[in-house]
Amino acid sequence: MRAVYATDLSSAIDTAIESRICLECLGRYGIDEIDLITVTSPNVTTGMPGSDVGERTRKGLNRQREHLEAEGFTVNTHVVRGTPHRRINGLAEQVNADLLIAGSRGQSPLKQRFVGGTIKNLARTAVRPLLVQRIVDGENGLEVANRHLFQRMLYATDFSENAERAFEQFHRTKKATQEATLLHVQPPERRSSGEVVEDAEQRLEALADQLREMGIETETIVRDGAAVDEILATEREVDPTSVLIGGRGRSRLRRLLLGSTSEDVIARAESNVLLVPPARVR
């Protein structure tokens, strides 16, 4: 299986790539080939006299490539110009990637600039499942928030087709997942409009039984309230290593719907987020 790994060649991405446990988790997911991609601005001219941008880019990519290769991955490197999320998605389609990976630093409003840019746009337009890997400031410098990427999963579902597609990721992570929490949130607006899922507990238990058959210890939770707030509250309670959630589409009109749940979870969660887009209509 193949992953496209977006890198800005920063120390934050170095931290993620140098985490052996993170890389082992990707291996358990099934990834054995990685395409490292860095996107430069169209306004940057690497061939200008005295410019060392191109050389620094090559050295940075080679450093990360060598580390991944030392861990047993087949690695391809790509330096392209353009809009980051478009070029990353374009490469993912070109190589038929199984997973997109991007690193994100911090959760505070002052630290959401990167989340609000490349990550936000990737979340809205991803053509493959997107793993947003959280990188934080630790006592001894930068560190990954959760090295065991898929060990404890929090799966949020509204029982939609997109959520069902996200649930299929457990078949990919089953070698790495030990515990799972399945969550359904009943928003107040749905309760008032009569759209409440009356058999939510039974439906969650049916999903839980599937995971238990895989050897994954599973619990179910049904909560009332605003979806994002309850997902984040549950995250604080169960301390997952990743939140698994389905996206709602990529068209210009449907992108506006993403911010209500998926985008906010990506921006505010303390753990990693695995976002699964809906199936593409060709």
TrEMBL record:
InterPro entries: Rossmann-like_a/b/a_fold, Universal_stress_UspA, UspA. Belongs to the universal stress protein A family. This is Universal stress protein. It comes from the Archaea. It comes from Halapricum salinum. Residues 25-132, 150-277 form the UspA domain.
